[in-house]
């Protein structure tokens, strides 16, 4: 089990040190919300250059040392994220929030009728065109290790590509 999934304290140390470990992150609103001694969730936003924002939602089980489910959405904001009245994660990260352009998202909702996703079931990525229905396998994502380092690296490539 990766160290950061070994306990709520280790996971919190991991998420609250992301901006120190990854200079490409301009700021973070990511928080850990406990829902029991060994269960919780992480939610919030990571902000990058070019008004790019990663919305994060993870459901965590430290008893088993796993991420039970997740959603990661990358978008470009229509408004500068540094403005004092920029929306909270609860508002901005909603699927239908109008002030953003979705670039892609990952989720762990299974699609057993889509055989092209079987190789990484249930991990997949939604990409344009027809972002809601166009899905590709996501072999880089896992329930047993933190996904954020891969996601941040992918964003870094997008920004500096």
Which helices and strands, and how do they pair?
Layout: H1 8-16, H2 18-21, E1 27-28, E2 31-34, E3 39-47, E4 52-61, E5 66-77, H3 89-92, E6 100-107, E7 124-126, E8 135-137, H4 148-160
In short:
This protein has 161 residues and is α+β, with helices and mostly antiparallel strands. The protein has helices at residues 8-16, 18-21, 89-92, 148-160; strands at 27-28, 31-34, 39-47, 52-61, 66-77, 100-107, 124-126, 135-137.
Explain what this protein looks like in three dimensions.
The chain is α+β, with helices and mostly antiparallel strands. 19% of the residues lie in helices and 32% in strands. The protein contains four helices and eight strands; from the N terminus they run ααβββββαβββα. The chain has helices at residues 8-16, 18-21, 89-92, 148-160, and strands spanning 27-28, 31-34, 39-47, 52-61, 66-77, 100-107, 124-126, 135-137. Strands 1, 2, 3, 4, 5, 6, 7 and 8 form an eight-stranded antiparallel beta sheet that branches. The radius of gyration is 16 Å and the shape is globular.
Strand content: 25-35%
Instruction: Characterize the main sheet.
Output: 8 strands, antiparallel
Q: List the total number of helices.
A: 4
Work out the radius of gyration.
16 Å
Using brief descriptors, characterize the structure shown.
about 20% helix; alpha+beta; 4 helices; globular; 8-stranded antiparallel β-sheet; about 160 residues
